[in-house]
Amino acid sequence: MNPQFQLLARPADGSLERILRTVRSRGFEVRDMHVRLDDDGHRYHVRLKVAGSRDPAMLARQLEKLCDVEHLAALHTAGAADEPANAPRMAAG
C-alpha cells in the first residue's frame, strides 16, 4: 500500500522535518516527496507518497495535528486508503 497525501504547511523553522519525523515515527517510510514554496513564500505545497503496513488514516490524523500543517488531503490511488472524512480536497496549485 502506497498512500499519497497533499499538505499545505507554513514554512516555519523545522516544519518539513516535523512532517518527515511524524511519517517515520508512525511506521511509514517516504517513497516520494515533492515540495515547493508558493510564489508569495507563505506556505509549502507538499505531495508525499509513503509506504507502510499500518493504517494510513492514523498517519493522516497525526499529520493534521502538526502545528505547521494548515491542510491535508489524502489522494485516491490504487491501494490507498479512503480520504479522511474531515479533509477537504485541496485545489491544484
Describe the structure.
There is one protein chain. By secondary structure, this protein is of the alpha+beta class. It has a single domain, classed as Alpha-Beta Plaits (2-Layer Sandwich). It is built from 2 helices and 4 strands. The chain has a 4-stranded antiparallel beta sheet, covered by helices on one side. Strand 2 and strand 3 form a beta hairpin. The longest helix is centred in the N-terminal third of the chain and has 11 residues, at 15-25. The N and C termini lie far apart (26 Å). Residues 79-93 have low confidence and may be disordered. Keywords: Transferase. It comes from Ectothiorhodospira haloalkaliphila. GO terms for molecular function: acetolactate synthase activity.
What are the main properties of this structure?
alpha+beta, globular, four-stranded antiparallel sheet, 93 residues, Alpha-Beta Plaits, disordered C terminus, single chain
Biggest beta sheet summary: 4 strands, antiparallel
Helix content: 10-25%
Provide the gyration radius in Å: 12 Å
Mean pLDDT: 86
What is the CATH C-level name? Alpha Beta
CATH superfamily: ACT domain
User: What is the ordering of alpha helices and beta strands?
Assistant: EHEEHE
Give the strand order, joined by hyphens, for the main sheet.
2-3-1-4
What is the number of domains?
1
Q: Quickly count the helices.
A: 2
Task: Indicate the CATH architecture.
Answer: 2-Layer Sandwich
* CATH overall fold name: Alpha-Beta Plaits
